[in-house]
Amino acid sequence: MVWKIALVILIKPVKMWLRLAEKPVSFFVLLAGLVFPFSLITSVVSFINLGLSTEELIISTLINIIAIMLSITAGSYVIYRLTPRFLSEKSYIKTLNLTAFSYIAVFMAFIVSEIHLQLDFLKLLGLYSLYLYWHGLSYMLKMPSDKKAGFVLISAIILTGTGYFASIIMKALVF
Question: pTM for this structure?
């Protein structure tokens, strides 16, 4: 079910945002059924190209998976706390759904671009995530149009920052 939503959201985002706004996916299902598998695939694909040993591949993959999951969950929490300031609905599960499903374009672009090094430019297709996030704000959090630009910018900074710090923390704990 979650994978179907993930694929349909790339093609028909409005339809899926309406559905998710009405019935968001639960925290556990979202993490176990969407974020974890995509994190695993992107991590393995990216680290295989580096020619790491099996042990290094496993450790690096685990660090990356945990960092991505922390980034999405913690970043969504910080964003959720900001929603009232932007006159929007305050719901952590909807904010998490918005963030996780918007990440699908980044995950897909990264997986395809890492298959072959000459396809690296396809990572730019991950910017479609901003489009998904932008449109999802209206449906998921009932955000007024005049507040979206600032909110998307702040959200992008928060998610980038939490990803960066989660990665640093995980590497510090392991190495």
Answer: 0.91
Instruction: Kindly state the tokens that stand for 139.
Output: 């449906």
Q: Do residues 20 and 138 make contact, with C-beta atoms less than 8 angstroms apart? A: no
Task: Output b/e per residue, 54-74; b: 16+ Cβ within 10 A.
Answer: eeebebbbebbbbbbbbbbbb
State the pLDDT at residue 4.
83
Domain boundaries, the chain: 2-174
pLDDT, tens only, 31-51: 999 999 999 998 888 777 777
Task: Report how far residue 174's alpha carbon sits from residue 60's, in angstroms, rounded to the nearest whole number.
Answer: 10
Determine the angle formed by the axes of helices 36-48 and 54-82, rounding to 10 degrees: 140
